[in-house]
Amino acid sequence: MNTASSSTDSRYSELTDIALRVREHILRLSTDGGCFTGASLSCADLFVFLYKRFLRVRPDGWQDPERDYLLLSKGHDVPALYGTLVELGWMPAERLKNHLKTDDFVYWHPNRNVPGVEFHSGSLGHLPAVGLGIALDIRLRGASNRVVVVTGDGELDEGSVWEAILVASAYRLDNLIFVVDRNHFQANAPTEELIPLEPLVPKFEAFGCSVARIDGHDFGQMEAAFSRLPFEAGKPSVIIADTVRGKGVPSIEARADRWFCNFTAEEVEALLSELHGRARADLTSETLTVR
Amino acid sequence: MNYQELIRQTTLNDERIVVMTAENRAVLRELPPVLGPRFIDVGIAEQTMIGAAAGLALRGRIPICHALAPFLIYRAYEFVRTDVGIAHLPVKLSSWIAGFLSEANGPTHQAIEDVALMRAIPGMTVFCPADEADMLAMLPAIWASPDPAYVRLIVRKTDYVHAPFEIGKAEVVSEGTDVALLVYGLLFEEARQAARLLEKEGLSVGLINMRSLKPVDEQAIVRAAKSARRLVTIEDHLLTGGLYSIVAETLLKHRLTADVQPLALQERWFRPALLPDVLAFEGFTAEHIARRILAPVKNEIL
Description:
- The structure holds 2 protein chains of 2 kinds.
- By secondary structure, chain A is an alpha/beta fold.
- Chain A contains 11 helices and 5 strands.
- A 5-stranded parallel sheet of chain A has the order 1-2-3-5-4, with helices on both faces.
- The longest helix of chain A is centred in the N-terminal third of the chain and has 16 residues, at 13-28.
- Chain A is globular and about 50 Å long.
- Chain B has 2 domains: 3-152, Thiamin diphosphate (ThDP)-binding fold, Pyr/PP domains (Rossmann fold); 171-301, 3-Layer(aba) Sandwich (Rossmann fold), CATH 3.40.50.920.
- Helix content of chain B is 41%, strand content 20%.
- Chain B contains 12 helices and 12 strands.
- In chain B, α3 packs parallel to α5 and α8 crosses α12 (286-301).
- The interface between A and B is medium-sized, with 27 and 29 residues.
């Protein structure tokens, strides 16, 4: 199943609609200080799928010890989570107006002052280990919650990711699922030009994981993969989701220089129009390098 | 009673406790069969141990984490600060062979900036017991506290009978008007013997086992500064950021000036050797401590 057939598949029309609105939120957060637009647009579909079709979580029960866990290890993608939480009723849309304001905690990286954020992140390579600890406790208690850790692909440069996976394999934690948002870019460059990651599937397999590789914008492929979890008893599962940085807005798609974006209000309007299939935005604002 | 026995009893009484190690089992050898799955050895992966400890703590556990001091907190420093510190989780760091206790391992293994780095983390508490009995008296309160904690483990025995422990309280062994020795950890015993030598020289000597470096017993420091003509800080730690700094900060906060003589390591690692030779080479035996104190005291005070 390819992206085109999935997006027109009526089974996923609700998810497609929600993801479109999440992308609107991401673009609206990309001004007045901006945010990590490109890295957020790439995983918007994944978050919508996870919340709507996979995670056993609910807005009024996120302290429930039986809930599933979603951990954003590539924390700079949090605008996609903010948008998803708003669309699914976890937090009011008005709260996004507090983005980057001192009287709230809606900033560039996730923190636990936002309902639904399980743990803060921002420093890459931390949440595979934190997820490992959560998964260990779940198993100690004989419970059946699942722990999903979303990592970036550039984040895989961090040795601590592989250290945690090695330990997760040793402890046979099949309640632990790593989802790699494989958008093929790290901060400033394509991964394969800077620190090549491929072949990625055999790397994870060699570390004791069972791996699937899917199109991270295709809800049908997501459903097929996530419904098979765990892929193998006694092994952590890895889902490598091939995605496009900036997905949904062609003028900023797959560009090394559109990671962190701080657009003018006019540019945001033009990008929203482009998101809805109209003319490409004419972007004149400076590209930024944060890292 | 020893460390393993204390852990065994504590884990039996409190199901929240889990014991973790990055393959450092020096004081844990008998525990794996006793604790079963609540003994978690992650291999030589200190960062992962600390991150996983944060995850376990999020689920209500109290992880006690073991590793050699430099790897526990330097290799994993950002994990301690970011995962444990920012979330203020009750993760308990049990550091092995801190300070001079690394003996002949060399500078790679010398944790002589651990107090400085740990107390720099908001909310982190820092404890340095004087000997095994002191440690066993201190750990139950430290583990029962909701705060993250760093503890310099010590299994050396002395014949000193310690007072009960309270977080944030020092143990005032004696009060004196000429000098007050402020000390923590392994050097407590050397300082205690040094105090006897100084008393033989006719000095009135105070001795304080600091125990809790963060929170620190400010009143004990203030009282010592007001009653003794000289304070001496004694530590197997760099001069920067340890007890000397703590005393200086405390005196300034209380608008006091005092004559403070620091015995610490200044801008260098110590000479690796067996412990008695390290103490002699670096000037931290009781005799060396007494001599270093007497020189300025006799010349400048008496």
